[in-house]
Amino acid sequence: MGQRMSTPTKYRFSFGPWNISEGADPFGPEVRKAFPHEKKFALYKPMGFDGVQFHDDDVVPGVDDLTPAQISKQAAKVKKMLDNQGLVPEFVAPRLWFAPQTVDGAYTSNSAKDRKYALERTLRCIDIAHEVGSKATVLWLAREGTYIRESKNARLAYERILETINTMLDHDKEIDVWIEPKPNEPTDMAYVPTIGHAVALAYASKEPKRVKGLIETAHALLAGLDPSDEMAFALAHDKLGSVHLNDQNGLKYDQDKNFGSANLRVAFNQVRVLEEAGFGSKGEFIGLDVKAMRTQKGSCVTSHLTGSRELFLHLVDKVRSWDQKLEKQLVDARDYEALELAVMKHLMGVK
Ligand code: 3MF
Ligand code: MG
Question: What is the reported pLDDT for 38?
Fold first, then answer.
């Protein structure tokens, strides 16, 4: 597993207000009472969370219809609220999948007018990030992709994404760009489906150090990849800006299940890789992107978040108490059968 960090990382956790949802899904409406955003911020600290992840319109509702001065005023209001609660705005991401202008994609839309909208919205989002005191923006490229291959020129699409990233880097030198890959949903095939694609874009950009990735467990699993290896790849290039830990039960819609709930060993390995690399020691957050079960009663529901956080911390204990000497011995002997049994017994708490 490599050497243990000399000072144990004190992990800090984050989530976005969308993680406290009312339970709507594509087949039915909300099942829980709405809970206002402002009230959500008061929940973070008592739940053990210090960071807030935002979409631009979580900070400034109706952002498309407001003037720069109005946007700025609202952002300042949210910043004050965060300061009062002692919360850190981890990132602000442009929500580029809701507006009529983004039906066929944002930066890769075939319409020049719609691409212009997407870029302008993105630059406003960066301004909002700046005003709330965040150091990053996240690109989840929701609609950058196709339902049928022939509808777009994929090579041109990748050039357009890179061009946008470069414009973003120029717009504000203090805001970094973290790309969140996902292989599908809502599109059939998404551009930038893996962290490898994101890291390639980072190196191709005009300021590679300022472009990183955000890896979501479920997204890596949907791509048929192991999330811990995806994280390790990013970490090896110093390109892991943040994570969206959650879980996924097989190849289906993006489930955002509780961290570790579908595959404890896959979760253990993500914690192992993060811990070994000292992720979090430079202020990075452990982001949780988990969805409450629709069946859960009450308003508001938060136990999926506290539960996932608790599970993460138990797995940190498991990683720290793992017998590294035994691991080395079994690796040296190339006895991976014994190594596997030892890992499983360790996870089960069997001596
Ligand atoms: C989509 C996601 C999104 C992004 C978020 C921030 C709802 O599958 O995971 O979360 O993480 O929009 O970019
Ligand atoms: Mg996510």
Answer: 82
- 73-127 pLDDT, tens digit per residue, is 999 999 999 999 999 999 999 999 999 999 999 999 999 999 999 999 999 999 9
- Structural domains present in the chain: 12-322 (3.20.20.150)
Q: How far apart are CA 183 and CA 110, in angstroms?
A: 20
Cis peptide bond N-terminal to 125, omega within 30: no
3-class secondary structure per residue, 202-264? HHHCCCHHHEEEEEEHHHHHHCCCCHHHHHHHHHHCCCEEEEEECECCCCCCCCCECCCCCCH
Average pLDDT, the chain: 97
φ/ψ region of 250 (left if φ > 0, alpha if ψ in -120 to 50, else beta) reads left
What phi and psi, each to the nearest 5 degrees, are found at residue 327?
-60, -45
Q: 0.90 cut: is pTM over it?
A: yes
The ligand 1 atom at the shortest distance from the C-alpha of residue 139 is 13
What are the respective helix, strand and coil percentages of the chain, to the nearest 5?
Answer: 45, 15, 40
- The 3-state DSSP class for residue 94 equals coil
Are the C-beta atoms of 347 and 264 separated by less than 8 Å?
Answer: yes
- 8 A C-beta contact, residue 276 and residue 2: yes
Contacts of residue 295, defined as CB under 8 A and 6 or more positions apart, other chains included, come to: none
Nearest CA-CA partner of 212 in 228, 235, 191:
235
User: Which residues on adjacent β-strands are paired with residue 178?
Assistant: 138, 212
From the candidates 57, 58, 114, 256, give the one annotated as an active-site residue: 58
CB 50 within 8 A of CB 88: yes
Q: What residue's CA is closest to ligand 1, atom 13?
A: 140
- For ligand 1, whether the C-beta of 256 sits within 6 Å is no
